[in-house]
Amino acid sequence: xxxxxxxxxxxxxxxxxxxxxxxxxxxxxxxxxxxxxxxxxxxxxxxxxxxxxxxxxxxxxxxxxxxxxxxxxxxxxxxxxxxxxxxxxxxxxxxxxxxxxxxxxxxxxxxxxxxxxxxxxxxxxxxxxxxxxxxxxxxxxxxxxxxxxxxxxxxxxxxxxxxxxxxxxxxxxxxxxxxxxxxxxxxxxxxxxxxxxxxxxxxxxxxxxxxxxxx
Length: 215
Ligand SMILES: Nc1ncnc2c1ncn2[C@@H]1O[C@H](COP(=O)(O)OP(=O)(O)OP(=O)(O)O)[C@@H](O)[C@H]1O
Ligand SMILES: [Mg+2]
Hints:
By secondary structure, the protein is of the alpha/beta class. The chain has one domain (about 5-210): Rossmann fold, CATH 3.40.50. It has helices at about 15-30, 50-60, 65, 80-90, 95-110, 130-135, 150-165, 180-200, and strands at about 5-10, 35-40, 40, 75, 110-120, 125, 130, 140-145, 170-175, 205-210. The chain has a 6-stranded parallel sheet, sandwiched between helices. The chain has a two-stranded parallel ribbon with strand order 3-4. It binds adenosine-5'-triphosphate and magnesium ion.
């Protein structure tokens, strides 16, 4: 596993930041020098709460690239989809900054995990979607899903959208938190495992455990 990978989810708040921090920690432990990047952070000023969380889960202090804001090159204050948050802050999103940041990080690290905002169809501008960026940059993608009711539907829809644009589904991270209905949870995991094994035999499947934070 080398290069830049896009981390998306079947929905906002599905656990992308937890999954990104966890995978970065796992890869670092395996000896792959791994860093995370947030594509566009909304709802913050001067920092990225997602990068803060990644570092906490990874158990490392802020890096030089965090201090230089290379890992979160674009931040808007209003907690909304990037297209709206940028409009509210009277900004035009400098998309090239995202690519340039990833390029710098990829020069210094083996693996860059680039966390998106929300899911695949989240607008970056009124006529440019997150998935358009992933396709343009040809980024292998990791999809975060869960065991809650509705996840099978959202997962298969996301995978169809990736397929339509020729984007590689590198992996699926199944977030085991929060525990909801155990029967549905177990079936969702086994359904997705079987689906992937049949249709996407090269796609990895990881289980994300509950990650307690000492807060
Ligand atoms: N594996 C986990 N262990 C513990 N808590 C979790 C886990 N996954 C998700 N959570 C909880 O769910 C919330 C949402 O997770 P997270 O912030 O990772 O979502 P997200 O998909 O990155 O959201 P956003 O779209 O805002 O970036 C967290 O604040 C945390 O409380
Ligand atoms: Mg997040």
